[in-house]
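Thread amino acids onto this structure.
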């Protein structure tokens, strides 16, 4: 007997995970999805996603207004009351769901569930992963939701995810919180043809010419006031590997032209997430480079033919501030990558010094 499932997606990575679940674990069920306005171009994606029939229904909602405001303590307090005391409703939500699945637990997830529960229905609430770096998630959510849970318990109401819940993920062995019960998502390769066709249509995907053998993923550290010496690192790599051989994937917040001015080709302004590019294209003969970007881990951990990747460790010619900023991040990356490798995950991605990277890649010029 088929069930009715509702996914709540705030990012495109979450949407990819929901699509894979709809095509595999829930392929016999009626599956709907809410896609929020958190991602650029989400309304167009939602409209085109409906055509693919991966989901029975695709609902686009403007949900940023449900998230805790940064405009001061009074506004945050008002948001808290609206969510947990007044229990605001989402009028557009259809009811009758057996299970609601989301990565996060926030005001919006509570608003959806309060809408459904108010009609006397009690669907199961489950969670899903959002990439390798999401496995440290805690079952009760963040700080504001923990406070909200205490209030709801006091009033005899429900608390999402507590005392335990299912966590749909590609690698259950990575789960840290034992209260999350892992259920494996089948690998991307199992439904890759259908998934790729749906992704290409939903995102109006047109192939980018990845002609360069080396692709560097730039962060926003140098423009966000948290410099780690990334810009000179990219220029040094390009000088050693050949400027014509390096493509720089720019961070959306970085509108500088320093790399173009140096003669490098850049990829910027694309609303299509890198994970979709790597799922839809065979880039296994490319080498992905970065100082700190998690993009090296995303699709590489999911697809059958991952690309080789290096987190380039470099502390040469850094100021004291840059060295301090980078050292903490470098240790965090090394520790996490070591843990992933211990489970046989993402072994195509390694950490290496600048000189080691040049030694291994220089022969590819």
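Threaded sequence (365 positions):
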């Amino acid at each position: 007997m088929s069930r009715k499932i509702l996914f709540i997606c705030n990012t495109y990575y979450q949407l990819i995970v929901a699509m894979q679940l709809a095509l595999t674990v829930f392929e016999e069920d009626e599956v709907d999805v809410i896609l929020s306005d958190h991602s650029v171009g989400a309304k167009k994606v939602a409209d085109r996603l409906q055509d693919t029939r991966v989901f029975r229904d695709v609902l686009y909602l403007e949900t940023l207004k449900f998230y805790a405001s940064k405009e001061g303590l009074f506004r945050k307090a008002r948001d808290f009351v609206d969510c947990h005391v007044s229990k605001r409703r989402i009028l557009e939500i259809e009811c009758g769901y057996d299970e609601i699945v989301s990565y996060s637990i926030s005001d919006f997830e509570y608003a959806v569930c309060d809408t459904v529960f108010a009609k006397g229905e009690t669907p199961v609430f489950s969670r899903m992963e959002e990439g390798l770096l999401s496995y440290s998630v805690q079952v009760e959510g963040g700080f504001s939701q923990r406070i909200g849970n205490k209030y709801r318990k006091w009033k005899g109401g429900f608390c999402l995810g507590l005392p335990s819940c299912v966590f749909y993920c590609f690698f259950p062995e990575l789960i840290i919180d034992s209260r999350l019960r892992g259920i494996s998502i089948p690998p991307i390769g199992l439904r890759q043809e259908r998934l790729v066709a749906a992704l290409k249509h939903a995102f109006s995907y047109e192939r980018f010419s990845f002609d360069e053998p080396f692709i560097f993923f730039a962060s926003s550290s140098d423009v966000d006031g948290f410099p780690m010496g990334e810009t000179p690192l990219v220029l040094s790599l390009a000088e050693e590997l050949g400027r014509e051989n390096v493509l720089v994937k720019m961070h959306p917040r970085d509108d500088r032209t320093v790399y173009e001015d140096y003669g490098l080709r850049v990829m910027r302004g694309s609303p299509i997430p890198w994970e979709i590019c790597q799922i839809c294209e065979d880039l296994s003969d490319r080498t992905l480079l970065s100082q700190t970007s998690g993009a090296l881990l995303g699709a590489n951990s999911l697809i059958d033919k991952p690309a080789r990747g290096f987190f380039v460790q470099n502390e040469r010619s850094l100021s004291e501030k840059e060295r301090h900023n980078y050292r903490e991040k470098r240790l965090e990356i090394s520790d996490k990558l070591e843990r992933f490798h211990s489970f046989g995950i993402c072994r195509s991605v390694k950490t290496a010094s600048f000189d080691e990277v040049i030694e291994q890649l220089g022969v590819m010029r």
